[in-house]
Amino acid sequence: MKKILISEWVPEECLAPYKEDYDFTCPSREKHAFSYDEVYEMIEDYDAYFILDNEGDKKVIDRAKNLKVIANFGVGYNNIDWKYATEVGLPVVNTPTTVTEATAEHAVALLIATMRGVARYDREVRRGVWNSPNFSDIDCEVYGRTLGIMGFGRIGKMVCKKAQGLGMKVIYFDKYRASQEVEKEYNVTYMSFHDVVKNSDCITLHMPYIPENHHIFNAEVFRAMKDSAYLINAARGPIVDEKALAKALKDGTIKGAGLDVFEDEPNVEPELLELDNVTLTPHIASCTLKARMGMCREALGGIIGVLEGKKPYNVVNPEVLK
């Protein structure tokens, strides 16, 4: 019977369909999670490793002599050394489809909360401050504004639909431009990276974290944005230079930001914590029970597919599958 190691507790109903044929090891609900060191000590004899909030680095991969597939609980997989995994012929699985709706929804929630100052007003009311000015430009209507979407994949497209429902005009940049049919379907305009930056009233990030995207939003880019513009990041933290963002927010280079992801989670750039024009959430864009259960099933489906000699759609390096 093939053995599957799971780094964090998952609901029994996700495992139940496979329990007759596979041997699962995961922590109890009370323990919640295995540490990296615990995983390293255990993994040598396992056929599959399902990662939730842990790492699949070269050290772990080298120790896992029997490993046939490694999966991540999320769309991104930068916590796995996937390049090394590809070199040694190890398939890497992710969860590309089940997070789409929840993540797009949270990105739009951050957009509205940030542009309308929801979190700031909440903090003020709790402190006993009743700040209700009759004439102020501290906040901004969403309706009629231009949203720039950076990364027009599944989530970017869903954000586009939701933003248009709010009355926003949408422009986008993606390294791989969509077809004319898709652009027509979504009523969206393609622009260069820099044109999206300078023409948007709000920019939302939905690009992957790859080396070329490290700090792609930096001091120079913030200076190119409108001083009335907002930045939303529900993609990956290192896409944004947090120190430069904090300075841009503090100096009024841009008007506000909404962040669900950070460079060094769970740590947040201290200056950001002191600013009123930023809305912060703890990497929970996909945190609905429906989405998380779907992610678990999607990852396990990919794992089982590989172990059964199939070629699942959610293998990110399918070239290793013969």
TrEMBL record:
<dbReference type="InterPro" id="IPR050223">
    <property type="entry name" value="D-isomer_2-hydroxyacid_DH"/>
</dbReference>
<dbReference type="InterPro" id="IPR036291">
    <property type="entry name" value="NAD(P)-bd_dom_sf"/>
</dbReference>
<dbReference type="InterPro" id="IPR006139">
    <property type="entry name" value="D-isomer_2_OHA_DH_cat_dom"/>
</dbReference>
<dbReference type="Pfam" id="PF02826">
    <property type="entry name" value="2-Hacid_dh_C"/>
</dbReference>
<feature type="domain" description="D-isomer specific 2-hydroxyacid dehydrogenase catalytic">
    <location>
        <begin position="4"/>
        <end position="317"/>
    </location>
</feature>
<keyword id="KW-0560">Oxidoreductase</keyword>
<dbReference type="Pfam" id="PF00389">
    <property type="entry name" value="2-Hacid_dh"/>
</dbReference>
<comment type="similarity">
    <text>Belongs to the D-isomer specific 2-hydroxyacid dehydrogenase family.</text>
</comment>
<feature type="domain" description="D-isomer specific 2-hydroxyacid dehydrogenase NAD-binding">
    <location>
        <begin position="108"/>
        <end position="285"/>
    </location>
</feature>
<dbReference type="InterPro" id="IPR029753">
    <property type="entry name" value="D-isomer_DH_CS"/>
</dbReference>
<dbReference type="InterPro" id="IPR029752">
    <property type="entry name" value="D-isomer_DH_CS1"/>
</dbReference>
<dbReference type="InterPro" id="IPR006140">
    <property type="entry name" value="D-isomer_DH_NAD-bd"/>
</dbReference>
<protein>
    <submittedName>
        <fullName>2-hydroxyacid dehydrogenase family protein</fullName>
    </submittedName>
</protein>
